[in-house]
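Hey,
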Amino acid sequence: MSVKIKVTCLYFSLLTTFLLFFQVTVGQYDFSAVDTMLQNNQKVLGKEVVVLVWKGGNIIYRKETSEDFTAKVQAPVSASGQWLTAATAMVAIDEGKITMDTKAGKLIPILAKYMKAYINLHHCLTHTTGLEGEKGGIGKILPKSRFESLEDEVNAFATKREIVTNPQTEFFYSHVGMNIAGRMLEVVYRKTFDRVVQEKLLRPLKMRGTTFFNYDNLYISPSTGAQSTANDYLNFLIMLLNNGVFEGKRIMSEKAVAEMEKAQFTELPVKFTPSGTENLHYGLGAWLVEEDAQGNGVVLSSPSLTGTWPYIDRKNQYAAILMVKKSSGEQGNEIFTRFREAVETALGVR
């Protein structure tokens, strides 16, 4: 037998061994509970659903219920984009461009002109600016296309939003703080927010199908304007689970990831929070579904009204996302709970 044939045989032998190992690794779980959960909740989720579960370096479960809506197809993820916005801000902190204590008025003079110079980046990322939020509850959080730019919107915050209370004295979930944070990043990088997040986060994470630029109305919203794919968002979750590293490359410092996952301002009264999050603490861009005794997130999620439920579980070392093309907007937290319970059943940790 020639050396060439021997090498070829060895190659295919190793390849076969690897494929068998991969098959055992992926096939050791029974995801029938997740299949049943999706079927039982089809009325709420609709017929176009994608689910991905990642653990141990592999996607161990993939479900695409429609050929027209796969893990590669872009859809609005709305408030789930706040996790991405907060992460981009932390990258800017890593680079020394800004700090948590940086005053918004220092970068956005019109805020100082209208007596709002004291708001800092930390207040913005934690919904504690003290500025008036949306009237009418969660349904009013999705912005209208009234502004031609993020700069115009934040200028309107300066001139028209009332100061309800001092910053860091109450929690009021809205799109105000995150959009001010996005504008601060525009100023320090001298680029539009969409370009900043592309360069600092999305490209390094190979999130090519993700954007904050709404092509329908030319609107950029760091709080509710994100569009992504299940594949893309999973890359972000994997990076977080790996403490800031993706495919061997550091995207964020470990310290930055830890800060994002720490419960912030837990002693403050809650004036408004989305339904289903009433008893949860907030980190930076995400909710702490479970936390340890020190207030560090064990399970974190950043769900949206549009039907995106991404989360990471540090205790069991996995990431998962359930994404729908169009949600009925009903039973958001209940769906997330059922989804997570089904995944835990599949993994044998429940």
